[in-house]
Amino acid sequence: MLKDRIEATFGSVEALIEKLKAESVGHFASGWGWLVLEGDELKVTSLHDADTPLVYPGMKPLLTIDVWEHAYYVDYRNARPDYVTALLAKAINWEFVGQNLDGAGASRADQG
Questions:
Q1: Could you give the CA distance from residue 1 to residue 94 in angstroms, rounded to a whole number?
Q2: What is the pLDDT of residues 29-57, one digit of tens each?
Q3: In CA terms, which of 13, 21, 26, 78 is 20 to 30 Å from 45?
Q4: Are 32 and 46 in contact (CB under 8 A)?
Q5: Prediction pTM value
Q6: How many CB atoms lie within 10 A of CB 84?
Q7: CA 48, CA 39: separation in Å to the nearest integer?
Q8: What is d(CA 35, CA 45) in angstroms, rounded to the nearest whole number?
């Protein structure tokens, strides 16, 4: 179960959210904040520009946060922290994130 894994790795869901926020807000320039499964371990990271966990052996994407300026500028201007806070509080489908623990998230994310 996702919640159990989050609590084992980060201590609490709230701690994970704070770590995701810090990583995403602190990411320099354009890119993505990520929650990934690397091997059997949950990790928070960020990648630049169009880079993706899919190209790294053993890294499976679970959740991504778009921190390209186009994702938030219209509504938040330069307030990336406010955007990330709102996104994490209101727009995450944790059930979908949990499904991605099976490593097949990329196929589910294809909205073709």
A1: 11
A2: 999 999 999 999 999 999 999 999 999 99
A3: 78
A4: yes
A5: 0.91
A6: 25
A7: 21
A8: 7
Least confident of 10-14, 54-58, 91-95, 106-110: 106-110
**Identity (one letter) of the amino acid at 110?**
D
Structure tokens at 39: 């091997």
Query: Within a 13 Å sphere around the CA of 26, how many CA atoms are in the beta-carbon half?
Result: 10
Tell me the one-letter amino acid at 31.
G
The single-letter DSSP state of residue 4 is H
What is the three-class DSSP state of 56? Answer: coil
**Tokens encoding 12:** 């609490």
One-letter amino acid at 52 equals T
Per-residue pLDDT at 111 exceeds 70: no
How far from 6 is each of 65, 81, 97, 105, 110, CA to CA, in Å? 17, 22, 11, 18, 25
Q: b or e along 38-69 (b: 16 or more beta carbons within 10 Å of the residue's beta carbon)?
A: eeeebbbbbbeeeeebeeeeebbbbbbbbbee
